[in-house]
Amino acid sequence: MASQRSYTAPCPGCGAPVEFRSAQSTHAVCSFCRSTVVRDGDTLARVGRMAELFDDHSPVQLLARGTWEQRPFTVIGRLQYRSGSGTWTEWNCLFEDGGAAWLAEDNGAYVMAVPATTQREVPRPEHFRIGATTSVNGRSYTVASNEQAALVSAQGELPRLPPLEATFALVELRSADNEVLSVDYGSEPPRLTRGRPVALEELRFTGLREESAKVEKGRQFACPNCGAPVEVRLDDSKSITCRACRSLIDLTQGLGGELRHAEQHEPVEPLIPLGSTGRLQGVHWQVVGYQHRMGTEPDDPDEHFGWDEYLLYNRQRGFCFLVDATDGWSLVKPVTGAPKLSNDMLSATYLGTVYRQQFAYRAETNFVEGEFYWPVERGQVTFNRDYASGGKLLSMEETPRERTWSAGAQVKAATVAAAFGLEKKQELFARSDAGPTTPSGGGGGSGCGTIVLTVLVILVLLAILESCDEDRDGGGGSSGGSSYRGSYGGSHK
Description:
Layout: E1 7-10, E2 17-20, E3 27-29, E4 35-40, E5 43-49, E6 65-68, E7 71-83, E8 86-95, E9 100-106, E10 109-116, E11 133-136, E12 139-158, E13 167-174, E14 180-184, E15 191-198, H1 211-216, E16 219-222, E17 229-232, E18 239-241, E19 248-250, E20 261-262, E21 277-280, E22 283-297, E23 300-314, E24 318-325, E25 328-334, E26 340-341, E27 347-350, E28 353-372, E29 381-389, E30 392-398, E31 403-411, H2 413-419, H3 426-429, H4 448-472
Antiparallel strand pairs: 1-2, 3-4, 3-12, 4-5, 6-7, 7-8, 7-12, 8-9, 9-10, 10-15, 11-12, 12-13, 13-14, 14-15, 16-17, 18-19, 18-28, 19-20, 21-22, 22-23, 22-28, 23-24, 24-25, 25-31, 26-27, 27-28, 28-29, 29-30, 30-31
Keywords: Membrane, Transmembrane, Transmembrane helix
Domain DUF4178: 65-198, 274-412
Transmembrane segments: 444-465
């Protein structure tokens, strides 16, 4: 890389070479002794020792090279943060023209962000209320998250380095055209970055970690409840369940830390087994997580309904959700932007399409299985709004700390069954969105097929009624879900 002149000097801690490729870098972490080194001109001083990196199994690594908007760059540093929503990584990227950017994790995907400025003083974090709108440099944003974060580890060279484990406010503003503006109060004045979603394949990376090495190197530990071996496979899992006792285990403290867990005594069997692979919308997905969730109407807390969500993963595309509700199946993906809501919140506009509200309800997670990129918890509660425009779907989930959105479309039940090689169980995938069928001869009479279909409908209705009774008693729902709606969860970090 022939951009700027690099500078190399011995580490004050161990004498190993520490290289600075960017003139903007003031700090570096020695790759041998993990000393935190600060640069002052041509002098290096050791100011401490960096904590051990948690292995996030990301395909990105130091010195990987890519191209963004026709600008070649090299990954030269990494910061690892923790907040109430879990842990995440931001990669320091140096462009050949001397510019800098951050490749940050975002809701199971990535955002490429560059430094930003504002024409007025940045308000204090307490002025940003979740869901409120604000204007920055003439652009409208919605406050998507406002929480406390802390640096837990770092690697490589960096333009700044907040004190280790010292908490600071981090606010995220998102626009209706998929832009995210982050306000980092870990420095004074606050640091702003502006970014947009990006797929790893778009960055044309070279030097990524080999996929085969990642697959062979699963992280393994003993379940804190029963002691059975638990293996972590996802790039950045925040929660996982033990396959032996089904305890839900929190991984946000890292495998070296104390692992909190919650027992689950009422297992629900997913219709699509975990680990299954299927092809939907031209992409090969693997089922890595499953949730059964319950909802209640705001004006009728005694009325319960349930549905199922499958978390799907593809190494290049990230994550999406396959939702199974009694009114049909849908495939949705978390979005970076924040759709624009009407004043009465009964409609939302996203990428030029107006969606109308279908449902508003309180949602609670009551069974979990598999791995998740956010710290999912049993009993986790969100407030949800579902919007639709024809077959296109838009969903909002809100907690006191964060508001997230997902967008997607309905999928035919037969398509889902075929995608996962479950054609022999196709009748179990049928939902109330299925259209009328006619006998094989094409006529309109009441043939055997109609009689069989009628019997199946009656059986399905009886099963749904029985499931609803169980749900009112506090039990889990059926594997097919007992909901006429669905939402799509997940934290941005």
